[in-house]
Amino acid sequence: MGIGDLGQAAYDFVDFMHQSGQRLWQVLPLGPTAFGHSPYMSYSAMAGNVLLISLERLRDQGLLESSDLEVGVGFRPGTVSYELVDQIKLPLLLKAFQNFRRVATVATRQAFAEFCRTRIHWLDDYALFMALKAVHRGMAWNTWEPGLVHRDPETLRQWKSKLANEIELHKFLQFEFFRQWSSLRQYANECSIQIIGDIPIYVAHNSADVWSNPEQFHLDPQTGEPALMAGVPPDYFSETGQLWGNPIYRWDRMQADGFKWWLQRFRTMLDYVDLIRVDHFRGFESYWQIRQGENTAINGEWVPAPGVQLFEALNNELGRLPILAEDLGIITPEVEALRDRFGFPGMKILHFAFGSGAGNPYLPHSCPRNCLIYTGTHDNDTTAGWFSSISADEQQIVSDYVGGLSDEGVHWDLVRLALRSVANQVIIPVQDLLGLGSDARMNLPSTAGGNWVWRYDTHDLTDEIRDRLLHLTQIYNRVY
User: Fold this and answer.
1) Which of 232, 409, 423, 451 is 20 to 30 A from 292 in CA distance terms?
2) Which keywords are on file for this protein (predicted)?
3) Which helix or strand (DSSP H or E) is residue 430 part of?
4) What SS3 state is found at 372?
């Protein structure tokens, strides 16, 4: 309803992937989004986004009536209006919770209790945080009363008692999200499709993670604001760098407790997905930190990170992890050594391949087998939009490299180029299957507003697109 969810359309998408010979489905981070609705700025590194819960599935469980779903007015096709979705969907989720308390079976109540028990390491703090955030009208946790800011046990006890119903609501919504997501994941796995999830390297300051684990982050002891902020220096995407504003980790303390928080995070992630894309992988070797008060990322510094120790701890505790390293940006030999030490596949982007001669490392003939190759990512323009924006000389280079542009469109030329590379895995954005222009771009880094709103219609993925994608996938022996 106004936003992609975990209902029938998601299963239809899995069917499309299966019928077109695809085996990997990469998703953006699934957490509850904060300001700007960026999936990389979430209220929790562990929780799911309740706006993705299917109301139809709740109706099928007897928690909503069919008449409840007859309210989807004002939604524009092709885009998400988050404010309207919140306005319509959140009251219905509350109604479903109230009905759950009234009509849930013994077995369902037991499943809910078991869910709460097995996720206690993050769920209790998250549910309390979200309930408190509502009481405080969305204000950041460090502006709350001192007893809450500093997590005084007696103050927490009083608020937990006062907000017991609201806390249970948030636990119920996580329970329903996880049930629906687990069902979809199982269906995908039965179709031989693995889901690639996404771990943002940093978490939002105004999040349950920072509020409940302040000792793990560089915070101003007086204000609770980030004392050291995350970002990247000037690069391809921005002349002033990217000032993300997330608090930097206290890596010394994390290492001292055996990376307990990271172990919990990866365990939780593996409950959701099969493979894990680690965002901003280079930050595990060294990271760019900017001091409080800066307005851009220009005046920062590189600081070493204990990536080797972290990934060894994860391997020792959880076994060899199915990690994919997002190794874009300023990559040094030390970052490559960290990636290769653990055998993590890196990433190659075709949009970056044509601007610096035949030795460009993103050109398919330069790519190693142990990598993922993309036409573009969620931070890039669509292929059609990108091609229209580059110079005529660079367009000619693209044409020469692919052996002449086809009548199918440059997006299919790059899809073909990616599929015929030696890379072990290929990821194609849906926008490129559809040949859409820049108005379908998902995100423009370092900008606020207008991002993360694109959505496709189920009918856009036609039989013709399915058959063409299957044909190319078969030609290049990628139907496993």
Assistant:
1) 451
2) Carbohydrate metabolism, Glycosyltransferase, Transferase
3) helix 430-434
4) strand
